[in-house]
Design a protein that fits this description.
336 residues; alpha+beta; four-stranded mixed sheet; 14 strands
């Protein structure tokens, strides 16, 4: 197992010292944690959120805390708000480890010689099939226990439902255990066609030395019942991600498309002729669902997709399809 702590690794020496003090204090459930230096509110926020993103196991610490500064002693005092006691946390840890062991074994992530790409794909597919987005946690009046669980690995391993932050933290924990470099990315995602409107979290993984972006939350929401996982946001470059996720906090460039699902599996079609040939071939082999990317720009993706499927399906077949217009991904399913 690796411990991929991005925010600690990029910090300067003084910030690393502060992170270590904060880490030890949170790990020990201390009521007061004294940090050297008089920090600004933005510096405190960055410190707290960085430690949280680097350490998925800190589920006992929610987003709530108070702080004060002392100019005379040149220090900042953090007063964390814990969502459970140390004894309760130990019980949760046993449950999480038990369920992680079961999932790890079920996905055969310890298979000798398995590539990191295959590990990431199996974890992605498992999250899409077995877990759901916790829409209820976004409701007004929700109790704090539900809210904190949804934003941490507790929601994932305890209730099989969480929001983007909880899902991303669980994926980091899972892949780091399988010795795959993976970190949590925080930024903004689009909604209703307006990119950048919503605070959001996703992951960045490193395969064959090449960083790639991955938003499993959006693939969960695009997969419906999970029978056929969506790979729309599976291993993207920065340019591809920026079409719907305009800003993020991690400063690692992702420029290589080779690991992307559609490139890797020959499902990125550069011409209509290629698309029709591959779709017909898949259907002739009994495939009932398929996703692909259109490599030529089209002003009306819906019409383009309908025309392509019309050339491939016989008149007795019915199909439903969904699209991502920015990435020009089309996914279709025959029948129900």
């Amino acid at each position: 197992m690796i411990h991929d702590r991005y925010f600690y690794q990029i910090a300067d020496a003084e910030t690393k010292k502060r992170i270590r003090i904060l880490y030890e204090g949170l790990d020990d459930f201390r009521k007061e944690i004294r940090i050297p230096g008089v920090l600004t509110p933005d510096e405190i926020t960055a410190l707290m959120e960085g430690v949280r993103a680097d350490n998925p196991g800190f589920f006992h610490f929610g987003h709530g805390y108070r702080y004060g500064t002392n100019v005379i002693y040149n220090e900042t005092v953090i007063l964390p708000e814990y969502i459970c006691t140390k004894k309760e946390a130990a019980g949760y840890i046993r449950l999480i480890r038990q369920r992680m062991d079961l999932l790890h074994a079920g996905l055969k992530l310890g298979t000798p010689g398995m590539s990191d790409y295959e590990k990431v794909r199996r974890v992605h597919d498992a999250m899409v099939r077995w877990f759901t987005y916790d829409h209820a946690s976004l409701s007004l009046g929700i109790d704090t226990d539900h809210f904190h669980a949804a934003h941490s690995i507790l929601g994932v391993f305890g209730k099989r439902t969480a929001v983007c932050e909880g899902l991303s933290l669980a994926i980091k924990l899972f892949l780091n255990r399988a010795n795959v470099p993976c970190i949590v990315v925080s930024g903004h995602g689009g909604t209703d066609g307006d990119p950048g409107e919503v605070n959001h979290a996703w992951n960045m993984v490193r395969l064959n030395g090449k960083p790639c972006q991955m938003d499993v939350t959006w693939d969960i929401n695009a997969s419906g019942d999970g029978k056929y996982p969506s790979y729309t946001y599976f291993l993207l470059t920065d340019a591809e991600m920026r079409l719907s996720h305009p800003t993020w906090d991690v400063k690692i460039p992702c420029r290589s498309p080779e690991e992307n699902y559609f490139y890797r599996n020959g499902l990125y079609f550069r011409t209509e002729r290629e698309a029709v040939s591959r779709i017909r071939s898949a259907l002739s082999h009994g495939e009932k669902a398929m996703s692909f990317r259109i490599g030529w720009r089209t002003p009306n993706l819906q019409k383009e997709a309908a025309d392509l499927l019309g050339k491939c399906l016989d008149f007795t077949s019915s199909a439903t399809f969904t699209m991502d217009e920015g990435l020009q991904v089309v996914s279709f399913r025959i029948g129900s």
